[in-house]
Automatic annotation (TrEMBL):
Transmembrane segments: none annotated. PANTHER family: BLR3025 PROTEIN, BLR3025 PROTEIN-RELATED. Belongs to the DNA polymerase type-Y family. Monomer. This is DNA-directed DNA polymerase. Keywords: DNA damage. Residues 28-151 form the UmuC domain. It comes from the Bacteria. InterPro entries: DNA/RNA_pol_sf (IPR043502), DNA_pol_Y-fam_little_finger (IPR017961), Rev_trsase/Diguanyl_cyclase (IPR043128), SulA_CellDiv_inhibitor (IPR050356), UmuC (IPR001126). It comes from Rhizosaccharibacter radicis. Its EC number is 2.7.7.7. Residues 242-332 form the DNA polymerase Y-family little finger domain. Poorly processive, error-prone DNA polymerase involved in untargeted mutagenesis. Copies undamaged DNA at stalled replication forks, which arise in vivo from mismatched or misaligned primer ends. These misaligned primers can be extended by PolIV. Exhibits no 3'-5' exonuclease (proofreading) activity. May be involved in translesional synthesis, in conjunction with the beta clamp from PolIII. It catalyses: DNA(n) + a 2'-deoxyribonucleoside 5'-triphosphate = DNA(n+1) + diphosphate.
Length: 506
């Protein structure tokens, strides 16, 4: 099922000026852009602060300056705004391979088949809006089955982020004004005079009189929003983005034919990469179906690659996810993210007996492609003595910073997600446990080493000011080694409950 995001930037011209030309201007200072309307100057765009003061686009500039003394006024640059909107649409390629500008202040994103790569639709929208906010742009977004519904909900629902459930276009549009359908302004005025203020009323109205009165444009917009009539989005890619395409005389639909076309597309793309001295980091394979919809498959690599065999194999493993429908009439391979890739020598080192360093990127790519993003990672050591805070997972392709100095005590190869309480028998306060019971199994301890005292990190929270853990490495009769700790120093109750816990295994 098709899913489309409408991204709306209500203050696009002024937000762009604040970011690039007026960075020193206070965020609370009202800012407007001006343009000519015949012989008079009018406001073309107004920031949020200006609109709170009653200023709006179309207002005579002289009236605005009289209402707000010291108003910051800048000439409107619609050509620059449009060019920047194109660049923003290209920036959104990190979310989906199908994006297009929606002038003058929006962007389309066809996210069909892409949401699971970003943690689901709500998470994807939240992350997109958060990244735009960090760059200084106010934005709203809505996701729905049709561009018309997404466009209307993003601009008229009042919510910053909205996900319309599949098939729920009519319910989402029912209470929105008819102007949300992107109608001619005169049509909107006439509809309101007829008492048709809401889209829900328009849906239930007789279609014949509406068609005679307003022509086909009104019903076409309504049917597009409800999904009765398709509304294609033509993606726009920057000229520097590598893309190759194959169209077919007869639609294809079998896995074998798709795999053969993938090989051709990847080989052609790798030739272009080699000419530029680049390697692919992200590949989007688009399937243009006979019914006008497009399916997308995205893969990524741990490091730049132009190995045609490896890249084709990654895409081949995703073919089973493709629904050809009535047939695929064209396939397109887009490389939205590439990085420089120098030539390397394979087949061993330069010196006799020198071995080539193993390249794990191929294995990482295949595991990530099969298991999903975020499932393949390595651990980064952090400067903390508390075991559960001493490391964090990072993607395999991120370089690791230098590790902090080691404590001198060995660490277990496996930590429990949370320390689990055990029943232990030990002499207080400095002796190791003689035995302990964990999950109804009693372990008699034959050897022990410790204690290693770890105190709480008082700068994090007050509850750790006096916290103490005494860790012991213990071995049972069967030779299994455990990492136990006692909560507290064994003397002062303020340092802990004196309970014993199992934290890991050697």
């Amino acid at each position: 099922m098709r899913r489309v995001v409408s991204l709306w930037l209500p203050f696009w011209p002024t937000d762009r000026l604040r970011r690039h030309r007026l960075a020193a201007l206070s965020p609370d200072a009202p800012l407007v852009t001006r343009t000519h309307d015949g012989r008079r100057l009018v406001i073309a765009g107004a920031c949020a602060a200006a609109r709170k003061l009653g200023l709006s686009p179309g207002m005579p500039l002289a009236n605005a300056q009289a209402m707000v003394p010291g108003l910051t006024v800048v000439d409107a640059t619609p050509e620059e705004d449009a060019a920047a909107l194109d660049r923003l649409a290209a920036w959104c390629l990190r979310v989906t391979p199908m994006t297009a500008p929606d002038p003058p202040d929006g962007v389309w994103l066809d996210t069909t088949g892409c949401a699971h790569l970003h943690g689901g639709e709500p998470t994807m929208l939240s992350a997109l809006l958060e990244q735009l906010d960090e760059q200084g742009y106010v934005a709203r977004a809505a996701l729905a089955d049709t561009p018309g519904t997404a466009h209307a909900v993003a601009r008229f629902s009042g919510a910053s982020s909205t996900v319309v459930n599949p098939g729920a276009q009519a319910d989402a549009l029912a209470m929105l004004p008819v102007s949300a359908l992107r109608l001619d302004p005169e049509h909107g005025i006439t509809l309101r005079r007829l008492g048709l203020d809401l889209i829900g009323q328009l849906v239930t109205a007789p279609r014949g009189p509406l068609a005679r009165r307003f022509g086909p444009a009104l019903l076409r917009r309504l049917d597009q929003a409800l999904g009765r009539v398709p509304e294609p989005i033509q993606p726009v890619l920057p000229p520097e983005v590598i893309q190759v395409r194959r169209s077919f005389v007869e639609p294809i639909g079998t896995a074998e034919s798709i795999v053969s076309v993938i090989a051709l597309l990847v080989a052609e793309a790798c030739e272009l990469l080699e000419q530029r001295g680049d390697g692919a980091r992200r590949l989007d394979l688009l399937f243009e179906r006979v019914d006008g919809t497009v399916q997308a498959v995205r893969i990524g690599t741990a490091r730049p690659s132009r190995d045609a065999r490896h890249l084709a194999r990654l895409l081949d493993e995703r073919v089973e996810e493709v629904d050809p429908g009535l047939g695929i009439e064209a396939m397109r391979l887009v490389l939205p993210l590439v990085e420089p890739l120098a030539l390397t020598q394979h087949g061993g080192g330069l010196l006799p007996g020198e071995q080539e360093e193993a390249d794990l990127s191929v294995l990482v790519d295949r595991l990530t492609n099969r298991l999903g993003p975020g499932k393949v990672y390595r651990m980064q050591m952090l400067p903390s003595d508390v075991p559960e805070r001493a490391q964090r997972p990072v993607p395999m392709h991120e370089p690791l910073p230098p590790a902090p100095p080691a404590t001198g005590w060995p660490r277990p190869i496996r930590l429990l997600e949370r320390p689990e309480p055990v029943d232990a028998l030990a002499l207080m306060p400095d002796h190791p446990p003689q035995c302990f019971t964990w999950r109804r199994v009693r372990h008699r301890i034959t050897r022990a080493d410790g204690p290693e005292r770890i105190t709480g990190e008082w700068w994090r929270r007050d509850g750790e000011l006096a916290a103490v853990r005494d860790y012991w490495i213990v071995e049972n009769e069967a030779g299994r080694r455990f990492w136990l700790f006692r909560q507290g120093d064994g003397v002062d109750p303020a340092t802990g409950s004196l309970g014993w816990f199992l934290h890991g295994f050697f």
